[in-house]
């Protein structure tokens, strides 16, 4: 279910603000009934008309994308930098990324035009795990790893507990590879956590999103999500279980 004005905007009829004006002016009907109040939610099964013309709702599209470094996780960028949407020129629907990956972070991100899925996967109460591989300066001590596992005190908040695994270390170059699994996904969270315990990130990539992995994908590649994968993501967000 999505708000009526958002559905109208997604169909390309008008901007979100203009869609709200159309609703308040009584020019929108849902299943034959005129709607004038904001906040009404509709589904794909509802028949919507704007000025007497049936609304053609976009087909839902879902993609798993391996974002390269130095690409913006957005539908557009005012600085004219390359965005994740630029990798989908053949897609006519107005897809957008769910959540964000930093400009210099690579790895998995989902793009869709399904607002319900986007809300489920980004709302704080839905705990979707995301796993990262970080190359850090220095070799994290057992104490630092323990701090990461129990929560790190940042400037204004404390992070939730993370799953941590030291994958490899290079004593000559004083670097290490560490796996970090979180479910919060706040802006720059993994980088900030590792910096806070004294091990700044040199490279970072997201290798897993929920149960989705990068198998078969290289940087810049994408694949459509299968219907059962979309259903499993929604169920996982709502219940914490896939099956």
Automatic annotation (TrEMBL):
According to UniProt, the name of this protein is: Pseudouridine synthase
Q: Which PROSITE patterns match?
A: PSI_RSU, S4
Domain of life, source organism: Bacteria
Mention any Pfam family matching this sequence. Answer: S4
- Say which species the protein is native to: Loigolactobacillus backii
Enzyme Commission number, as recorded: 5.4.99.-
Q: Which residues form a coiled coil?
A: none
Gene Ontology annotations of biological process type: enzyme-directed rRNA pseudouridine synthesis
Question: Which InterPro entries does the record match to this protein?
Answer: PsdUridine_s_RsuA/RluB/E/F_cat, PsdUridine_synth_cat_dom_sf, PsdUridine_synth_RsuA/RluA, PsdUridine_synth_RsuA/RluB/E/F, PsdUridine_synth_RsuA/RluB_CS, RsuA_PseudoU_synthase, S4_RNA-bd, S4_RNA-bd_sf
Supply the alphabetized keyword list.
Answer: Isomerase
Q: Does the keyword Membrane apply?
A: no
Top class in the EC scheme: isomerase
Instruction: Spell out the molecular function terms from Gene Ontology.
Output: RNA binding; rRNA pseudouridine synthase activity
Q: Which family does it belong to?
A: Belongs to the pseudouridine synthase RsuA family.
């Amino acid at each position: 279910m999505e708000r009526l004005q958002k559905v109208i905007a997604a169909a390309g009829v008008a901007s979100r603000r203009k869609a709200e004006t159309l609703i308040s002016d009584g020019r929108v009907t849902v299943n034959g009934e005129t709607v004038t109040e904001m906040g009404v939610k509709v589904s794909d099964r509802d028949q919507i008309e704007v000025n007497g013309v049936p609304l053609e709702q976009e087909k839902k599209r879902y993609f798993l994308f391996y974002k390269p470094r130095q690409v913006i996780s957005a539908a557009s960028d005012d600085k004219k930098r390359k965005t994740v949407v630029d990798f989908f020129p053949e897609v006519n629907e107005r897809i957008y990324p769910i959540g964000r990956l930093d400009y210099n972070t690579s790895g998995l991100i989902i793009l869709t035009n399904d607002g319900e899925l986007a809300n489920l996967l980004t709302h704080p109460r839905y705990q979707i795990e995301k796993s990262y591989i970080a190359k850090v300066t220095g070799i994290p001590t057992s104490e630092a790893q323990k701090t990461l596992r129990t929560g790190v005190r940042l400037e204004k908040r404390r992070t939730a507990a993370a799953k941590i695994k030291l994958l490899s270390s290079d004593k000559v170059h004083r670097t290490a590879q560490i796996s970090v699994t979180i479910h919060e996904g706040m802006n720059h969270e993994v980088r900030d956590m590792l910096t806070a315990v004294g091990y700044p990130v040199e490279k970072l990539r997201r290798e897993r999103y929920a149960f989705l992995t990068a198998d078969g994908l290289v940087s810049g590649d994408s694949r459509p999500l299968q219907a059962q994968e979309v259903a499993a993501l929604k169920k996982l967000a709502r219940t914490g279980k896939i099956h």
